[in-house]
Amino acid sequence: MFSRLFGGGNKGPTVPQPDKNSASAATIDAMQASALLQRCMDAYDLLALGEREEQLEKKKLLLERKINDEMDKAREFTKQKKKSQALMCLKKKKMYEQQLERLDALVSRRLGRQAPLHRAQAALVLLKRSGDA
Q1: Residue 89 burial by CB count (10 A; 0-12/13-18/19+): exposed, middle or buried?
Q2: Tens digits of residue pLDDT in 119-128
Q3: At residue 41, does pLDDT exceed 90?
């Protein structure tokens, strides 16, 4: 009963795998690599990644400027003996710093995604050239 509910039991016909030493296996591997790269390119267009990276860098600069501004305001309020306003500025500064940390993490994840795409693109170019030769 549970096998029908959760998909157990008969798995259906399986496709036989080609021999790894044959030329057809190399062709199938190349086709699979090409299909994988195409899916990756559709999902993460390299140009769009570059543009997004520029936007993130601009946002990082803006946050750094806001952090410096809030610190300057806090110093001014401290000199004027306005403790509550100075504390509010420090809280804003802390919030901007947390946003900056999240943004840095996002940029590093994006760079981590970008490297395999470049490697896959280079591999596809090599496969196409070797197929033409």
Answers
A1: buried
A2: 877 787 787 7
A3: no
Indicate if the alpha-carbon torsion angle 78, 80, 81, 85 is positive or negative: negative
Location of structure tokens 């390299």: 46
Q: What distance separates the 2 farthest-apart alpha carbons in the chain? A: 82
User: In the chain, where are the structural domains located?
Assistant: 46-133
| Dist. CA 68–CA 101, nearest whole Å | 15
CA distance 99 to 106: 11
Give the C-alpha separation, 31 to 25, whole Å: 10
For residue 63, what are its two tokens? 């946050």
Q: How far apart are CA 37 and CA 121, in angstroms?
A: 7
What pLDDT sits at residue 24?
57
Task: List the CATH code of the domain at 46-133.
Answer: 1.10.287
State the Cα–Cα distance between residues 22 and 132, nearest whole angstrom. 19
Number of H helices, E strands in the chain: 4, 0
State if pTM tops 0.70.
no
